[in-house]
Design goal:
This protein has six helices and 16 strands. It is flat, with a radius of gyration of 35 Å. The protein is an alpha+beta fold and 345 residues long.
């Protein structure tokens, strides 16, 4: 016998039938929030999978190349532990000793010229790196929802490691007491008096003094036997050059470009200059861009090897390269202007 005791009784303000219908509608609405409320979640057409793999953003030289900073000799001296270069110095009598009285019968008393030949040694650095691709890794990559090239990704990561490592060594050296960078050459002259503020913090009066003084300062250092053709500055100060000077509507960059143009020079900049100076401060560098004055070497450019098997389930790729960080060949031609604020200023 069917129990119809509650068939027509109310549940709150609703009858039993009304209550059941209300509950069915609520559950339907809740379930509609999910594509599949079970253990498997389907991807709907409103979801898009990006085919591009996110890559780490590395610091770059903002379009500049290492060869914009220092002349580079490529392919010379490969597999030599040291690169030797001849250095010639003139000796003998000076110019005035070569002056003669044309009617004085100066037999065997002419001035004379001699040279002294020596060598300069530059330490060559050898780089090697390896990556492997396992059978399992290759299979996983091939079965990914968006297939990716494991070989290409690993090769790019390794090349990036080399490029950024070489870049750091080019400016900061290797810290081994042999290979120095552009910004910490032991043969450079360091001036801590000329700049008490960076370009970004200079007043118009300070800027005018600095702009008119850098060429004279460098000429005094080199006894006017060399002109600087590179000015390397901190990156933040480079962008500060967009500041308008005075009331004439021209920028400091325009002014500096004009001074450098008259000197046949070029402006370059890096973030490494931000902390290369005395006490970790900013450092400006003035130097002559010429292989007789300063030079770097790439005896062997970055060279990857073909994949070769190791065992039955793994593939190996090696690479090698050789480099010589910038070498200052003539002293007193590289000038560092370190920003050291004046006391109380």
């Amino acid at each position: 016998m069917t129990n119809n005791k509650y068939k027509f009784e109310n549940i709150g303000r609703l009858t039993v039938n009304e209550f059941e219908n209300e509950m069915r509608g609520t559950l339907t609405a809740q379930n509609s929030l999910f594509n599949n409320p079970g253990v498997e979640q389907n991807i709907t057409t409103t979801t898009q999978i990006m085919g591009k793999v996110n890559e780490t953003v590395y610091y770059e030289l903002d379009g500049q190349k290492l060869s914009d900073f220092v002349p580079i000799e490529v392919g010379y001296g490969a597999f030599s532990t040291k690169i030797l270069q001849a250095a010639v110095t003139a000796s003998g009598t000076d110019f005035k000793s070569c002056l003669i009285a044309p009617q004085g019968g100066r037999l065997k008393l002419d001035g004379y010229t001699e040279i002294e030949v020596g060598t300069q040694e530059f330490p060559n650095n050898f780089f090697r790196d390896t990556y492997s691709i396992t059978k399992e890794g290759a299979e996983i990559a091939s079965r990914a929802m968006i297939p990716f090239n494991l070989l290409q990704l690993k090769e790019k990561a390794r090349r990036t490691k080399f490029d950024l490592g070489l870049q750091d060594a080019w400016f900061n050296g290797l810290g081994d007491g042999k290979s120095y960078g552009l910004l910490n050459q032991p043969g450079a002259v360091v001036d801590t008096q000329f700049m008490t503020a960076s370009i970004a913090d200079m007043t118009d009066a300070q800027w005018t003094t600095w702009l008119s003084g850098i060429r004279g300062l460098y000429n005094a250092l080199t006894s006017a036997t060399a002109n600087f053709t590179r000015l390397c500055i901190p990156q933040t100060d480079y962008f500060a050059l967009d500041k308008v000077f005075g009331q004439f509507g021209i920028t400091r960059r325009q002014q500096l470009d004009e001074v450098l143009k008259n000197n046949g020079a070029k402006l370059v900049y890096t973030t490494y200059n931000e902390t290369a100076g005395t006490g970790g401060g900013k450092r400006y560098a003035l130097y002559k861009y010429d292989p007789d004055y300063i030079q770097g070497f790439l005896p062997l450019e970055y060279t990857p090897s073909p994949l070769y098997p190791q065992g039955a389930l793994e593939l190996i790729s090696n690479c090698m390269a050789q480099f010589v960080t910038p070498q200052l060949k003539r002293t007193n031609t590289l000038l560092y202007l370190d920003v050291v604020p004046s006391e109380g200023g």
